[in-house]
Amino acid sequence: MSIWGKLLAGTFGFALGGPIGAMLGVIAGHSVDRIRNQKSDSNIASNSPQEIITIGIIILAAKLAKADGQVTTDEISAFKEKFKIPPDFQSDVSKIFNEAKKSSDDYHQYAQQIGMLFRGQPQVLEQILNLLFYIAEADGEISDSEIVFIQNCSDYFGLNKAQYESIKTMWLDKQIDPYKILGVEKSFSDGEIRKRWIQLSKELHPDQLRAQGVPQELIIKSEDRLSEINQAYDKIKSIRKIN
Fold first, then answer.
1. What secondary structure does DSSP assign to the chain, as a single string?
2. Predicted confidence band of residue 43 (pLDDT cuts 50, 70, 90)
3. How many angstroms separate the CA atoms of 168 and 150, rounded?
4. Residue 196 pLDDT greater than 60, yes or no
5. What phi and psi values does residue 191 have, to the nearest 5 degrees?
């Protein structure tokens, strides 16, 4: 069964609980109070990581699209393109997207739940940020309110400043700083920088993302980011004259 079939099978919301489970309960017409009374713990996360990542991204993408006050057709098209939603499930997924975009004020509770469930898996959380930047740029410009939204999501996820700046730099900085892309300081030794490059290369490899539970449909632009990281390391080696 595809990720969409699993997600919309009907009982996932009850199993998950928390704000994400409650959102699914609203969509399914179930009692929100009953959903919120369900337990939401790490066992659920380990059993259903793909479904949690998928619904979490749908909700945050919808609330991001609303963050600057309007939802453009370009943003919706970018969402549909990257999620590759099969025709049979587009109506159901649209219901989730439309329900979530009604307000952007409560996004923190969804971001916090995602951060809690994927604590210790920064590559998954970073990939979600990467997607949010992609959605924000779809209308040709990433607004200040969208940047604040994504940075706050990063904070709620529990990511540090260097992890956030590494992704932000690739989307916003015209003069790309290779040190920021790797999330290191210029004062770091050659060995420390190489260690960070190796770590990122492993974490962002598509096979590693799949192993962490990221659905194939949602492994988005990881190859591009991996390429940027390799180019950044090559640039640092050239600057420092490292063989």
1. --HHHHHTSSSHHHHH-HHHHHHHHHHHT--HHHHHTS---HHHHHH-HHHHHHHHHHHHHHHHHHHTS---HHHHHHHHHHHT--HHHHHHHHHHHHHHTT-STTHHHHHHHHHHHTTT-HHHHHHHHHHHHHHHHTTS---HHHHHHHHHHHHHHT--HHHHHHHHHHHH-SS--HHHHHT--TTS-HHHHHHHHHHHHHHTSHHHHHHTT--GGG--SHHHHHHHHHHHHHHHHHHHT--
2. very low
3. 9
4. yes
5. -65, -40
Rounded CA-CA distance 1/3 in Å is: 7
Amino acid letter, residue 205: H
Each residue of 135-160: pLDDT tens digit? 888 777 888 999 999 999 999 999 99
Q: In degrees to the nearest 10, what's the CA dihedral of 70, 51, 152, 171? A: -70
By the 10 Å C-beta count (0-12 exposed, 13-18 middle, 19+ buried), 6 is classed as middle
